Predict the structure.
Amino acid sequence: MKTGKTIVELATELERQATTAQDYTADPVALSMVLDRLPAQGMSPALPEVVRTPLLAGLNGDALPLTQHAHRQMGQFTGIPAPYYDRMRQDAPDLLVSNVNNWLSNDLSGRQRTVRTLDQQVRAVLSDRYRRLDSVDVLEAVLPVLKGCQVVSCEVTERRMYLKATMPSLSVPVPGSMVAGDVIEAGVVISNSEVGAGSLRVETFVRRCVCDNGMIADVGMRKAHLGRSNAADANLQGLLSDRTRQVADVLLWNEVRDVVQAVLQKDVVQQVADRAAQAATDKLPMEALGKLEQVGKVVAQRMRLPESVRQPMLQHLAADGDFSRWGVVNAITRSAADVESYEVATELERAGGKVLQLKKRDWEAMTAQMLA
């Protein structure tokens, strides 16, 4: 499991961001993209300036660079396809600026945009009706119901905040596992985005004690994802008064706490253990053991794993010697500790849970493809 920050470090960083971040509301026609023109490294300042970085201007101050996430949102708002936007950004920044400014100046929607900034960067370009749920408030809401839990991992990235906690007192064995003492602990992962990268989520999390793997497994928790879609939220928020929003936020935090408490129950982790026990009986075909490269290719394609993860996953699978579906799950989640990105690590923990939750026929279809 990738540990990231301590809970104290997370709280400190979220407080810092809450006090230093700034939001702006602007008409699209008042915004523009410009190019940062600075001398190339090692060149004389007397030489012609060199195009470097697209910046967003019109925010009551200096033009600011955009994060990768904000660039993606700018492309969406201006209707520029992502592959073309990225190509212009890389190879023809002048053309990118021209395209973006053309569509901003011709925006006749009458809808303003919320531009969120932090540390002298534009981190999000959103609808002005976008519902703000700051991560520091999420943390404040959930900490009181995590008594008895151990925070095992947390982080704040450019896109999301994550908090993963387990309750050691709620642990159950995995029957039929080939690993002696195979026990999993109940847990919860709470994540939130302040930049429009998905909703506030509360999901079932388990820790495999023998290897410290983490897995996101929403077995039996159909209420695991909180919040409406951004579009629905935006339409509602535009009609609410400040007081109504405050009441809505109180109700939301109460719901968050209720779902956290519902996830941290013995029957929930028992469902995961029962599913794991079944997965331990779903063996890879003997013929597939001689085609592990094909096994890795199929699993990576089906679960949409990064190409860089395929070999580490196969190495963990071979080292463990557990060639069952449960073994594949643990090879994927073990790979989470090997990657640099916390977000990718979390997606690997989620991918492991998806393999565990496959229906029997889907697992059989996957194994058949391994033999093709």
Remarks:
- Confidence is low (pLDDT under 50) at residues 220-225, 227-240.
- The first helix runs from residue 7 to 20.
- The two ends are 33 Å apart (CA to CA).
- Residues 135-275 form one domain.
